Structures are given as C-alpha cells and as structure tokens.
C-alpha cells in the first residue's frame, strides 16, 4: 500500500487545549501538536498526500484567553481511534502531556466514535432503578480504616446498611493484606450487608475495591460478584482506564463501577498543564464506564474550585450520544452541614460519600446514617 | 481479629516528598500524609494500638530546602506492599497526588520489598549479551510515520537493520489501524529485519508497540514474539505499570521491554507537584521491568534538565538489591552532533534513539546509520 491509498472518512474528533505563552508562541505550539500527536516526525519524514493532508491534526480554532493563555481546538481523523481508552488518551494527550504548558480542556467525539466507547453499564437511571431510589441523592458509606479485620469491617458495614445508606464502598486502601485478606473481607461484608438489607427491606449495594494486575483484577471482580457484591470500586490511575472499560463491557461479573481518583492528582493540580477536572473526573470516567465518579471536592485543601466541580457534573450528565450518564459525587469529609450547598451545586443526581463525621459516636452510627438520609430526603427539591 | 492482633515486622519502606509551604505548613502536611496515605480517616476513627502505632506513616526526617520548600522523609510498614506496581504507586503517591504542592522525589525499598518487584528481565548486562555488544552505547532506530503501510515500514526497517542499528522500535503511534494492521505490520517488519540481520551477521532486535486492554495486550505480545520480534515497546501511562510488570514476569512471551513515556507528562512537568523525573523515568520503569526507559531529553523544549537526566540514569543503574539495571536513553531529535555531550552525561550504558535526521537523505538511510554507529564506536571511551 502506498501512502496515497490511505482513505479517511473525513469525520474528525476534536481536542481542545489551553496553551501557555504569547499568541505567536502558543500558535506555533498548537501547529506542532498537530504533528506530535500523530506522526511525531520532522517535515522531511512526512510524505505528501493523505498523511500530510488528512492524517495530521488541524488547528480549527485558535484564540487568546488572555495575553499568556490561548485556546486551541484541534481535530484528528476518527480512524485514529479504536474504541479503547488508551488510544483515546494517546491521541488526545500522549505526547502533548510531555511538553508542559499544555492543558487538555475538552474532548468532543462524534457519535460514531462515542458509540465505540465502553460507557457506564447502568448510569444514573439504571443505578437508581436498581436501588429503587427514583429522585433523591444517593448516600454512600465507606469501610475504613485500613488495619481493621474482616469481622470489624463487616460489623461496620452492618451498621451502615441498617442506617439505610444506598451504597457501601471499601476505602481505596483496602487490598489483600495478611491482616485482612480480600476474599474473607468481601465475603464477610457482603453477608453483613445482605443480612441488614433483609431487616430494612432496602437495597444496599456493596462495592469492594478491586485492584492489581490483570487477570488478578478480573478474578477479584468475579469473586466479589459471587460473594454478593453489588458494585465495584476501582482506581483507573492504578489499573489503567482500559481495565475499567473492560469491566464495564464484560457480560460477567456485570456490576456497576465506582471510580476513585487515587494517583490521578498529577493530572489536575497544576492549572497550566495536565488535564482539566471536567475531562479527568467527568468525561474520561464516563467514556471508560463509571457509574459513579469520585473526585476531590472544592472548599477543602484540594486545588479544585466550585466551577471545576460544576464542570465535572456537566461532563458526567450532559447528553453524549447514547452513553449513559455518570453520578458525580460530593466527597471529602462530607457531613450534614454541606448538604444544601452540594444540592445547590449538583441538584439531586449526586452521590454523597459520607466522611468520618458519621462515626463521631461509635455506638450511634446507624442512627447517624438514618439522620443523614432523612436530611437528604428533606432537602430534596 | 481485634486491632491489637495486627502484627508488623517493623521493616519499613521510605517515601521522600518535597512539600511547598512554610515550615509549619509543610510539617503539618507531612504529618497529614502519614494518615492520608494509609487510613485516610479522622482521628476519632483510628483505633489505638498497632494501627496508630505502626500502620500509620511516620515522618522520619524533615528539613527546609528553602523558606518555601521542605523535604519530608516518611516510612510505612512493608506489609502494606504486595509486589505490584499499583500498590506501590498507591502507597507512595495515591492520595498525596491529589493535594497539589507535593512532589514524590524518592522511593527507598528494603531488599525484601525490592525482591518482590518484577524488575527488568534482561537489564543492561542481559541485553548487551543478547546483542553481543559488550561495551558501546546501543543504537535504536524508529519506524514512523504513522500512515505508512506495513510494506513501507518493512522497507524502512530493512534499511535500518542493514545500517547496523541494534534495536528498531515502532513509533508509539503505530497501533492496529485499518491502513496498517498490527499483525501484518509486525510480521513484515520482523521478516525484513531478520533478512537484513542474515546479511550483516549482526543481531538486531525489533520492538513492536504492544497496547490496548488486557488480554488483547498479551495476545499482541505473544503474536509479536511468534512473528519474530525480539523486544516490545509499551507505554505504562496508557496500560498501567502492572501490565509492564506482568509482561516482565511471564515465562512467555519473555521479551525485553522498552518503556515509552506517552501520557506520563502530567506527572513531571510542574516542578512543585507530581513525580520527580528520577522516580518517574528511572525507579518506576525499573521496578516494573523496563530493560530500556525512554524519556524526554534535556536541551529541547521539554521541561527537564541535565541534572534530571543524570538522576534518571542514576536511578536506572544504581545497585538496588538484586534488580537488574535499566538502560537510560538519549532520545528526542537525537543526531550525531549530540553524541559527545550524551556520552559525557551517560557514559556507555545508554541507548541512542535516532531522530528524523537519520532520514535526511531518503536513499542513504543505511549509510547514515552506519556512520552514526561508527561515531558511537569511536566515541566509546
């Protein structure tokens, strides 16, 4: 095949960057990204014809946001995507990430490319249907701290479930430690939650943390499902995003996925580089298959703003082809005092992740959960 | 099991951070990392006994580098590691990454923990033995640009191999595209290189790019080996580091691994946060199993310095228990004019990744490679 036998459909996807530097410098760098993100080669290595005319990126829009920050909108042929997260990440930020002063701020895929992404298995509507909670925010409790035995965690899970929370997730620190083996912990906690659910008559889904290299990750997910887990917690920063997409696509173990931002911080903490929160905690989890996306909440010590969180929620829930939507979360030392503020920001389609405050009185965890849920129900517009 | 039945050996691993802020603020944040990197819970949730006394991180050293940057050395029990990369990344920078103003600058594992890491399959000595190149720097050519057909890439590979390079790697952009399917490309290029090797009498290893979700990644690696590949190129930023470790550990396809920094940039570009280059491009690839680690070279447009590159080389090659060493690389528009400078920095244990310059005269690629290799041989101290 010679280069001119290459055929492109003409359909392109869009990647938006913010570039640091003067207009001339930023424009030069945008032009260079068209090459670096595709062929990454000097001009004399790029043959004439379709590689040069169609395969390379194109700067479609370029404008100054201020003297030293410029927005560039680039497009690339959809033939360079393959429906995997890794190829999408490579095409949008693979080499661009290495430059510094380049921030990935948006990804716009045409429907034909969106359709190939894994997407959430259940999404907001599906998870609500499974939980039989049609309208109010969901409440999620967390099993911690690391160091407790399976029995101690199961006792805690039982209290949370009796308190009427919708979801109970492992802390991301829970693994397969000698003092708390994965299989024993997951079985005990799942049993405890099932038992409490029978008492309350409410569905409560348990999301154990699955982790580690493939195929161990899949074994753990399968084991979790067999033991009675109703969801899975996974950290794409550690496993890679395609592990999430694969779990979302598999016909078994077929559980909704809660994504945790562990090890993803480098991408968002510097405002001049990396990946904007709406992409990192909204679009990417959603493309990969997050039913729930956890991320740092504004107003604490994390370098994330109210506007960032609004952008994440928008990316989680806006129409994107046939992709189901993802629950954004109110996480990080979350307690009753922030309910109104969070619902003003997010509305009802949000998951509250309960912080340590719910355990202020160790003998009254169940009541504290009930109180929190009542507040959520009352606050519901 | 109650909390006081927890047992720790007392052996701990060390994680070093640079923290932005005044001495008081940085110290407070170091203390908080002891909690966030382990139990991530409020004080009233942490039981007395071994969780509090042994499981939590400890600030072992703390000192000011200047008024606004402080170095903190923390230790954690080795029982919190499990030999996987994902657990190591979680324990060293999982939650810390989300804070901003925290930079991971070193990881010191005791031998018992090092022994559990995958490590390079061949390392510098093993790769030299396989190539029968005992002392000089290695030379690696790159198949590009994306858009060429398998035949065109094979023709290029043939020229490189006749030119006597030691390694020929796919560009990280080469995937499984309709215009250049993975299987056809890898077979054609491997055949061409084998054929040229017979003519030259020299070993030349071909490293196709393997990518995508597990188990597809493993299928591609296995197929590559069957087709005659002698190494593999892999991007841990896309696949996750544990995919690298698994490939390094497997008894088949058992090929040396070349790691590419695609999508890893966010971790290093901001000097105040993320991960120092010596860790990101030195220690982590080496722990995971890189025989060769590729990273951006100083003196171009990347935010990386001569000192950073020296640190990477040190991390690649210093004694670390029984772990084999990793080849650092001189990459990024590399040409003859930088040989002396690179060898002054790296010595002979380095791989030169040839840039587009080697193809300045399309009909004389073979000669250009021969000339470059002669220069490397002459420059050899």
Automatic annotation (TrEMBL), chains A, B:
Coiled coil: none annotated. It comes from the Bacteria. Residues 123-355 form the Ribulose bisphosphate carboxylase large subunit C-terminal domain. This is Ribulose 1,5-bisphosphate carboxylase large subunit. The lineage of its organism: Bacteria, Pseudomonadati, Nitrospirota, Nitrospiria, Nitrospirales.
């Amino acid at each position: 095949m010679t280069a001119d036998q290459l055929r492109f459909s003409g359909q392109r996807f869009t990647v938006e960057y913010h570039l640091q530097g003067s207009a001339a410098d930023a424009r030069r760098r945008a032009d260079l990204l068209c090459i670096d993100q595709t062929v990454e080669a000097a001009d004399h290595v790029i043959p004439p014809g379709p590689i040069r005319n169609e395969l390379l990126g194109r700067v479609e829009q370029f404008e100054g946001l201020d003297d030293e920050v410029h927005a560039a909108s680039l497009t690339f042929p959809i033939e360079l995507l393959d429906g995997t997260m890794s190829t999408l990440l490579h095409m949008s930020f693979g080499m661009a990430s290495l430059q510094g002063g380049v921030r990935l701020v948006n990804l716009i895929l045409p429907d034909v490319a969106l359709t190939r992404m894994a997407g959430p298995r259940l999404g907001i509507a599906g998870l609500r249907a499974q939980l039989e909670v049609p309208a109010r925010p969901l409440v999620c409790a967390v099993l911690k701290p690391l160091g407790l035995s399976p029995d101690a965690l199961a006792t805690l899970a039982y209290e949370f479930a009796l308190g009427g929370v919708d979801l109970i997730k492992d802390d991301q620190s829970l693994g397969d430690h000698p003092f708390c083996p994965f299989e024993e912990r997951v079985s005990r906690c799942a049993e405890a939650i099932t038992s409490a659910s029978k008492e309350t008559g409410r569905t409560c889904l348990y999301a154990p943390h699955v982790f580690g290299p493939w195929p161990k990750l899949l074994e753990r997910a399968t084991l979790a499902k067999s033991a009675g887990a109703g969801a899975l917690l996974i950290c794409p920063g550690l496993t890679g995003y395609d592990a999430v997409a694969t779990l979302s696509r598999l016909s078994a173990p077929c559980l909704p996925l809660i994504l945790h931002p562990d090890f993803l911080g480098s991408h968002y903490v510097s405002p001049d580089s990396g990946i904007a929160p709406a992409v990192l905690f909204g679009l990417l989890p959603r493309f990969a298959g997050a039913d729930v996306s956890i991320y740092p909440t504004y107003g604490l010590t994390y370098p994330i703003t109210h506007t960032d969180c609004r952008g994440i929620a928008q990316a989680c829930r806006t129409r994107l082809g046939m992709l189901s939507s993802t629950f954004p979360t109110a996480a990080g030392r979350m307690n009753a005092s922030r309910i109104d503020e969070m619902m003003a920001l997010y509305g009802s389609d949000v998951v509250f992740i309960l912080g340590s405050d719910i355990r202020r009185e160790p003998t009254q965890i169940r009541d504290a959960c009930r109180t929190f849920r009542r507040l959520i129900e009352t606050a519901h517009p």
